[in-house]
Every structure is written in C-alpha cells, then in structure tokens.
Amino acid sequence: MKKTFQGSCHCQKVKYDCKIDTDKDSIQICNCSLCSKLRWKGLKINPSQITITEGKDNLSEYKMTYTTTYSCKDCNVLVYSLTEATDWAPDYCRINITSLDNISPEEINSITTEYVDGKADTWQVITNQEEINSL
Prior knowledge:
3 helices; globular
C-alpha cells in the first residue's frame, strides 16, 4: 500500500515527507561498521520518494565510499542516507525508520526486512540464519 508519511529529527529542525510503498519497499539492516554502531534500520526507497520540507540547511553530511549520511546539525539524529549508483545497484535512499513520526508499529511490521552484507562490501541480501543472528 502506498502512503505518505512525515518524519523529523529529535529537535524538529529537519522535517521531511516520505512516500512509502509498504508492499514493495524494504527495511534493511546492514552489518557494516557504521550501521552496526548506530543499530541502523534503514527503509530503502528511491531518492525521489523523499522531500525535505524544513531544515535542509540544518543537515550535516558524512561521506563514505558509496554513501552519504545526513544528520541534524543540532540534535545529531541521522535522518537518511543516499547511496550513489554502482555496477550492482541504482541510486537509493535509506530513511532512518525511527525518524518517521506517523507510522504505526503494524505498518512497520508489514514491511519486508532484509539483512545486507555491507561488512564484506558486497551489499548482498544475507539469507543464512546464522549470519543474521550474529548481526
């Protein structure tokens, strides 16, 4: 089901609208060092599905190899990340699932969760239950 949600950082200086298709989009849990330290759960969407409605100038950037993360300069909440196209994937965005303000637990639970291998830099979906348990 397609629906528009609103999200924000903790101090409310950064706000956004996000169009989510709960039948097609997925929540990704990654095992790379940054995602592991943040306990990050990112809702993977097309970059065209997010619109920053307030506070774009209040976002700080942290650039990694393929991905740039965007956090509020004041409260430091990581709002989203943007990954550039590579040989193995098109551009995509991951929204911090916990920054969505008006999504219900039932809606979150209806979205497919995938575990991805960022640690090995392959970004492949992990299906081995033993590997998933170690995340």
